[in-house]
Amino acid sequence: MATAARAVKETECRVCGEDYIDPKILPCGHLLCRDCITSRLSSATEPACPQCACAIVTAEERSGRSLAEIADALPTDLAMESLVESMQVLGQEHSCCVCAAPAVCICLNCLDLMCSKCQTVHQKLTATRYHVVEHVAALTPEGLAGRRPALCCNHGDRRADHFCGGHGVALCSACAVTEHKACHRLGKMEDAMKDADSSLVKLRDKLDGALRQVEETLSHLDDCMREADSSEEAAVVQVDKACDLIHALVESSRQKSKEFFQNALASLKDALLGEKASLAQQRRKLKAQRHLVERTRRRTPHHRLKDMETPLTKHVDGLDLACTLPAHLNVVSLPKMIVDASVIREIEKLLKKMGRLEDGDQVT
């Protein structure tokens, strides 16, 4: 008896089967661990994504580059990286990191689990008094990943309230004034996050539009397939009606005529199926990219959203979003039936003998 396939976790690498470590975004939008990518590159001449079979890298892109360079050139999925870390933190035994008592709270800044007493001390210490602490029971891995506060790139214990677009770093107020005052792209962290989120929303909407177009075109192809099937059935009926006039004589002609229509429509149906398969592949890519963008928008730590904006934009801009059918696939035209002239002559002879056809008349 066949067993049901095991469900794959969102955080599980399709190659090693473990939670992602340094997850890299493939050109198709799916993820693999960095080391799994290098392993796949070294063991296959044409390495492909295990989920959709799209190429990880072309021969031209691979030429003259080491496996590490190829893997490192792929963008890191910061949302998935944060989700895996959050799952590992929440999945461990909930005991206080200080006194080993049952933990009830977690610090979103340093990810330490604490009992209520140690939490009180934690929020009174000078170094951690401004840390954000929440009840651990109320948090999911997704919630923890998306709610962790942005921290200063120079001071890991300070909340970042500025972002330097020129250097791509989150900054506390002191660092913003002392080290990045002259930077032209220095602004509030909140504004930078709004800009990044707005950009990701536009990417999502762009992918949604492309997906809708693919769905509409696939629906149109289904209509064409049904029309082709209907045309084939109608052609067979026409052949049957013509051949049924004198069944004994035209049985072989009937079969030839059927094969003629079936073969004529087979090439069209093959073309429709090929176009449908191509669009289905495009739909899978667009869905993967759309899911990636939306997950990045919702789960990436605020200070890392800007890091994801550029690689994701490049990914989407590099996609083929066009969805135009070749003109010959938009309309199903039925080829004209041609009856063998010798068969017609035989029918005419027989009909004349039967008195069903006068001299000078022809079978039409």
Automatic annotation (TrEMBL):
Alphabetical list of Pfam families matching this protein: zf-C3HC4
Tell me the leader sequence span. Answer: none
User: Which segments constitute the B box-type domain?
Assistant: 147-189
* Entries under SUPFAM superfamilies matching the protein: B-box zinc-binding domain, RING/U-box
Coiled-coil regions listed in the entry:
186-213, 269-299
TM segment ranges: none
Keyword set for this entry?
Coiled coil, Metal-binding, Zinc, Zinc-finger
In alphabetical order, the GO MF annotations are:
zinc ion binding
Please name the InterPro entries in this protein's record: TRIM45/56/19-like (IPR047153), Znf_B-box (IPR000315), Znf_C3HC4_RING-type (IPR018957), Znf_RING (IPR001841), Znf_RING/FYVE/PHD (IPR013083), Znf_RING_CS (IPR017907)
Superkingdom of the source? Eukaryota
Query: Can the keyword Chloroplast be found in this entry's annotation?
Result: no
- Domain named RING-type is located at 13-52
| PROSITE patterns documented for this protein | ZF_BBOX (PS50119), ZF_RING_1 (PS00518), ZF_RING_2 (PS50089)
Spell out the SMART domains in the cross-references. Answer: RING (SM00184)
Protein name from the UniProt record = RING-type domain-containing protein
- Organism the protein comes from: Pomacea canaliculata (Golden apple snail)
